[in-house]
Amino acid sequence: MTHPRFAKTLITAAAASLLLSACGTPAAQRPYERPRAEAPKSEAPKVEAPRGMPAAAPTEAPKYEMPRDAAKPLEQPYSAERANIAPAPAAPAGQGPKPIAGDTGRIPIEPTSVAEPVRPEDTTFKDYGVNPPIDPLRDRMSTFALDVDTASYSVARKYINDGMLPPYEAVRAEEFLNYFVQDYAPPINSTFAVYADGAPSPFHRDGSVLLRLGVQGYQVPEAQRKPAALTFVIDVSGSMSRDNRLGLVKRSLELLVDRLTYQDSVSIVVYGSRARVVLQPTNGARRDEVLAAIYSLQPEGSTNTAAGLQLGYDMAFQAHLPGGINRVILCSDGVANVGNLDPISMIQNARGRAPDDVMLTTVGFGMGNYNDVLMERLANKGNGFYAYIDTIDEARTLFLDRLTNTLQGIAKDAKAQVEFNPDVVASYRLIGYENRAVADQDFRNDSVDAGELNSGHNATALYQVQLRPGARGRIATVFLRWQEIDTSAVRELSGEFNTWDLAGSFDAASARYQMNAVVAEYAEILRRSPYSEMTLAQLAPWAQRVAAQLPQDRDVQELSSLIARASGLR
Predict the structure, then answer these.
(1) Contacts of residue 44, Cβ cutoff 8 Å, sequence gap at least 6
(2) How many C-alpha atoms does 232 have within 13 Å on its Cβ side?
(3) 323: which DSSP letter?
(4) What confidence score (pLDDT) does residue 74 get?
(5) Which among 97, 319, 366, 431 could disulfide-bond with 229, CB atoms 3.0 to 4.6 Å apart, if both were Cys?
(6) How far is residue 177's CA from residue 185's CA, in Å, rounded to a whole number?
């Protein structure tokens, strides 16, 4: 889902005055205030600037030039014209910045990897290909929907811990990147802040640079979270008895129940050959009653996922909280062998009477006969996100940290568009996001479905960029567009990234930037990208270097161990 540091802020006096007047008291002392926007007066979404910040003027905004060693956050509102953005402070090379909300340290529990043998022929993955290099003279725009899924990384880890490399089709680079804590500072008086930095790539011999783009959403304090109506849809079919998959589901849900309050409600639907209600909407404070329903679950029958979702959405409609958080959470191994098997029509039929603010989170369990495609597509079409649990340790990370802290939606249909300058850029290649591509002309088509982000969510994208020899100036202009959850008002941010914003060397970049570069190359190797020039054995020392710079981050330590282990597998 968390945080970067970059170089010292350089803002003109006028801009400093504007920020001070908009922000008032310092952020550390200022009470939380959610950014608001006027509700649109017609059905057509309205483009607005965040509260406390002016809409862009009809003439071009003043440009703030950055020092050569700066990387920059893109935090200013964009309405009709571009705004150039000032940078945030940088972290010294080799040192991880202190996270705003702390690194997600996991509670020490002995991790258990699923013992069942993994048989790739029984799993369902889809090959989305690999993005090629693009000449900006032919196409200078790169447009994609934001993605906060993390399942692909956990699935790959499961395979490696079981002693084999994952199928290349199972690897989605963007989900590898999104798995890790980032260093993006939270936005002020806006829903999002956008960051950019870059450095020469040590993994490519053609002189490429790696450009990192980061999007950080604002964090709603737990005390100010809206009431939640959660409907669990749990697969209890026969396949869920394998290696105690259902047992791991129960333990995972127990963790989530411990975080609920009297304002929240819980419903439970189960499905095997048919679907049935196990728990009617129940106050979250009635913990014993909720847990008793969870503990009572037993494997039964075939797998009618469509029936389970249909009943789950019916329960979500019954428990719906206007203005609250309304979430359906599907826990399954992805197997569907009875009833409607098409994920698109499955979710369309299931939504039925449920209001548009009911979002779907899919959580995968088990392997050996796992359907990754179904789980990912259901989450995409259900306006939610997709995660995979392979150990109780991962369950703690998801249900205690990532899910409960990100229940409240803040934006829908979030899209990014990067316009590369052909005078400076010879070619660019987006690493990952192959199945998130959006047509360039649809960037401002607000009827096109894109990504949904919740409180505190962030998303990261890396580009491999080849610069023209000796060229100086603007590398790219970054645009971010989304709709506010509460009002559907449309907003944009934009900002420029220049050659002088690049770090002089890879070692001079922040530790989190270096981490992202290693993670992206790890994914590239695993998915057999033709644009990777490294082996896992060659990458392992780079991972060790990053782990040494971020010693408190257990995920980064595990990454180094996984790469070392994977280098010995075939």
Answers:
(1) none
(2) 29
(3) T
(4) 53
(5) 319
(6) 17
